[in-house]
Design goal:
CATH superfamily of the largest domain: PPM-type phosphatase domain
Structural class: alpha+beta
Strand content: 5-15%
Largest sheet: 5 strands, antiparallel
CATH class of the largest domain: Alpha Beta
Number of helices: 28
Strand order of the largest sheet: 5-14-13-10-11
Number of strands: 14
CATH architecture of the largest domain: 4-Layer Sandwich
CATH topology of the largest domain: Phosphatase 2c, domain 1
Oligomer: single chain
Radius of gyration: 45 Å
Amino acid sequence: MKNDLVKNIILYPLLLLIFCALNFAISDAPLSCGAFVALLVIDLPIIPLSLIFCLSFCVYKSWFFMLFGAVFAVIFGLIFLIYRKKNKTVGIELTVYIILGLALYVLKDFPDRIVEKLVYMSIIATFTIVAQIGFTNIFYKKMSFSTTESEAFMVATLYILTSIGLINLFGVFCYKPLSVLIFILLSRYYKNNLSLLVAVVVATPYVITTQNYKIFAVYILFFMVYSVFKFAPSIAISVGILLAELLSGIFFKFYGSYGYMESLPTIIVTIITSLISTHKMDTLNKKYNFDGTSTLIRSVINRTRLGTSKRLYDISNVFYQMEDAFKNLKKCAVSTDTLVEKMCDEVLFNMCAECTLKPKCINKNTPKRDLIEKIIKIGIAKGRITIVDLPKDFLDVCAYPNSVIFEVNRLIGAYCEYIKGAESNDKSKEILSLQSAGVAGLLKSLAFSLSKISTENKDEERTIKRVLSKNGVKCDGALCFGEGSQTEIELIMPTRYYKKFDVAKILSNHFNTKFIICKAESVANNVINLSLKFAPKFDAVFGVSKITKTNSPESGDCHSLIKVDEGNFLVALSDGMGSGNLAKKTSETALNLIESLYKAGLDSEFILTLVNKLLSISVDDNFSAIDIALVNLREGTTAFIKIGSPYGFVVSDKGIRFIEGSSLPLGILDDLHPTVASATLSSGDVIVMISDGVQDAFTSSGDLIDFLKSAPIHNPQELADAIIAKAYELSNGTPLDDMSAVCVRLVDKLT
């Protein structure tokens, strides 16, 4: 409440001054009427506003104008009181009300000056619109950066007319310090974004009233001084402005006559502004330069991202629960002991129950249950039983042993079918469990990426827009997500600027950090949304060379070279066992699946385990040796994964690194144990992968290393061709297996 009182003590005297000034802006045209109506439209209190409005007409020193002001205040006070009571907003009918309210003013001196008065009435009506937009911006937007060009024009017009009235009322001597004060404060408030415009606007009333156009030069000089000292302490700006003022008045004679008394107001103003710290101005800027729409959009985006992230985490948890369920279902399969008991029941209560000699067996308490179970277990172990497998104790009491043999063998057959089906079912459940775990992990990763939100970093976003603008690119909006190397930039701009300019290069040159456009989507007619990230440090060039086994229709070797995402590169070589169509099909199947799963964002352990399971349940004996290198193009870190593949190499100017594998190929065993190695590569390093046909041709790894020491490593295609040519030569022109070589060289990323 105390704060409201202080605000009113400052506000209403200031409005009174504005009303008085507007009454003197244009001779005999009370522009304060337009300002009064505009302030009522934006919901300022009616009674105190009406009182100071009436009081402002005292400056005319005319009973008629004082009467007119009172009548106008009563009319519009009542009109807006009625509208507010009914909770309605004044519409287009406001124009009619203004005409009626100005009727007394127009009819004075009728019919003389009627045309002039009608012109003034139209000016006042038009000024009402200007004042409404201007005051709305001042009171509610606090002249923030969200102010549009039309709103800024209205505020400038309101200021110029008010200032002209102040000069007419009090003289130029009083306006001069006010104009300097406004220029300094607004320039520091906007941080030089609008300081040139402010300089021109505050100089305009001075120029209009004095007809001295040299005043524009004075205020432009103020702008130049501020631009030089904008990053300096506040006292430096004030001293610079004072020196510019003295230089303009004493040496350049821009003011005409100029003495110490003329310089005194500027000296006082510069002393006052030097006491206002930069920190206080920054606080004021952050407090009032608040873009509500931008903040709302940012809030909605962040809320949507976090909401989606939470949903993805929840769905991820569902798939983790499914993984556990499939694992538990596998553990619930019927055990062998349980099956033996059931088979024993079948023999005793089905076959023996129908035997004509059953009463005799019952009297002798034979056959014993443990004896039947023993016979069944022998049959399970051997696959079937014969007469020689039956114990003597059993043969002594049973009159129909062949019937028992037949029934036990039938049950063992059914048992084997059940076990086979159960094993197949378990493998299917295991694959479903793996898939559930993989999808859960992927959803969790997506949820984490969406948890990055856009923080209030308007300085950086304004910098991005300003940099683009200086380079001729119109950017309608910019948002930043994440921090550090994970920073993402979202831009909205007309499509024609995206096609004409290299936006990523412009930002890269300014921030001295390489950016790449990872996504460009059209969001409306001729409007595009760009997503930028930090560019990887490296790029990759590759070479591939291969020869098919002699007399083989198809090579069983396949390779893959794909960019998984903006920061990761995958190179893989798959060698299907043997040569020909089947080996090719196996190799392609494994490699295509690996490619798809890596692109989906799944991790290596899951991918390789799943591919191994799928190959292991194949009807045919399909095996494939896999050699994989996953390269992080941002850091150069590389993971080498070898599954039954030959040794590989990293060749650089510093020497040759040997990468060896020892695990079996994919599809042989249910459990997979790949050989994994890691290394950090530099620009110029070359990854060399070979199939076992090349390995066999060179006889030993030492021979291949000796060859690589003198091979052309700068061009990966030449290196691959040279390796295959040498292997072909060592095979005496008759390759005994498919031969393939894949070479990948890391290079610095070009801008």
